[in-house]
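Encode chain A's predicted structure.
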Amino acid sequence: MSEIHLNQRGINAIVVPDEVEATPGSDLALHIINHGPPLHITLASSDSAAFTDFFHENLYVNKTEEFRIPVRENAYPGVFSIEVIAGYGAKRAKFRVAVRERPEPDPEPVPEPAVPAAPAAAVPAITLPALPPLPVLAPVAVALVLYGLWFVYRVDLLNAASFAALLIGVILTWSRQRS
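Encoded structure for chain A:
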């Protein structure tokens, strides 16, 4: 909580901190302490639109007053200023409000449930996925060989033949799926 002292060093005297900090989604709490007779003050901020909806407030302070300025949840880190005005504008004091990023909470470790160890015989064997049958793999192998030959010799007929072999492999795979 930030303290603002009024009438401490004389009539309408204002003592403010140099800088206070706030985080997005929190309230900046200002604790205003009046050390003398009651007075009216004005809190104003002309550069706070990116951080809060607060713009201007007139307060009557008898002894103590608490004033909260909500900081937007989606506010980015940055700085704005608040001016405290007393004595119908005769006395002014300004302080900075630094909006800092909200610290990330430390993740609490989640205890893992105790799992009894399975007997060695009950551990399943690792199974590899089944390979496609030979009639499907053969056109793919032929296409790879033809494409490799085209890459070396740059004969366009080899490139077309590799494409045709891949097309035959697709048709064979499709026909096996249908039956």
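The chain has a mean pLDDT of 86.
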